[in-house]
Amino acid sequence: MTAPRVVIIGAGFGGLSAAKALAGAPAEVVVIDRSNHHLFQPLLYQVATAGLAPTQIASPIRSILGPQANARVVLGEVTGVDVDSRTVSLADRSLVYDHLIIATGAAHSYFGHDGWAQVAPGLKSLDDALDMRRRILLAFERAEVEPDPAERERLLTFVIIGAGPTGVELAGAIAELARRALARDFRAIRRSMAKVELVEAGPRVLPSFPAPLSAYAHRTLTRLGVDVRLGKAVSGCDADGVTLSDERIAARTILWAAGVLASPAAAWTQAEADRAGRVVVTPRLTLQGHDEVFVIGDAAHIDTGGGPLPGLAPVAKQQGAYAAAAIRRRLVGAEPPPRFRYRNAGSLATIGRQAAVVTIGRLRLTGVLAWVLWSVTHIYFLIGFRNRIAVTLDWAWAYATFERGARLITGAGSATIRPQLPRLTAK
Prior knowledge:
single chain; 25 strands; FAD/NAD(P)-binding domain
């Protein structure tokens, strides 16, 4: 008798948690992902700002699931799901499932201005992070040999759009990179020339955090030299800068951290979706009318009483574990578990060296203690002992020396933004 097949689309936090929780279950577990690695997204900004190497925050999916006898990995991109025939379609094949978990995450949302993506890249993948690192480091290289003061100023102006955790962490990291790590590397530019602009349409930074922590983050960013612009909606983005409601910021490097759009899961399944494209699921994380289909993580909209759950790693991990537990019960004919309840373990964000904010229940922390807790937490949740040791050593070295060891401009894509440099002549 053939074992039931559980297909999991996506090997992010939710999909991987579900797959591992199904270890030893009387089922075949098939994990599909278009990348061959699991990415620790909370530290992606560190790759983008030359703090860590890509290999330190990513692990091959096959290595992670290799010891799990009932799991296999398929590298490919899903093109559709037929919930009536219980089939998942890829470009060159299709897979029949008995149970399906959709954990496809989210993409960047430019609020109807998709053309902005070419000049204002977001941060969701290793490719995004490496492209962002290339743009940031090339800006300094170009500024070093730029004879026109106005153009040099544009090159050394970095605009981050969106002041959520990603935007705040990027702004703080770029400010520290410009003023400390790169300060000794260049001769013609000084640390004071770099400008970091953080633009937010809302009234405060880190809007998902309590107001006192948001105010602390704002003050810390200002001390780092970041110009925080609140209540400023972006009306235009191009290669020369950003247009706000009442002003223009000339800049060559624009980074997007303002919004996300769910994966095509709703279109695949013809399900009800919210304004962000997330599938509206039942209290048990299943598709309406299809109890064999679970939708979790950033692809799902579920309201447990306090509004829709945020797109955070702990949410996805708990939902993945829940979906796996529900499937295990079905496999043995047991009653389904109670409806899903999210256990809020708190929120963390770092602003810079010795500066972070942490909220856990009623506990509120800022400063050095919060920064230590943020560091320990992120190291603990990294996959693989080797990665934990490597990140710990790199962070310790960076703390002691202000150096960032991953300052490499790599990839063929750099040619697309390489400037026409002036000819250097001997004196």
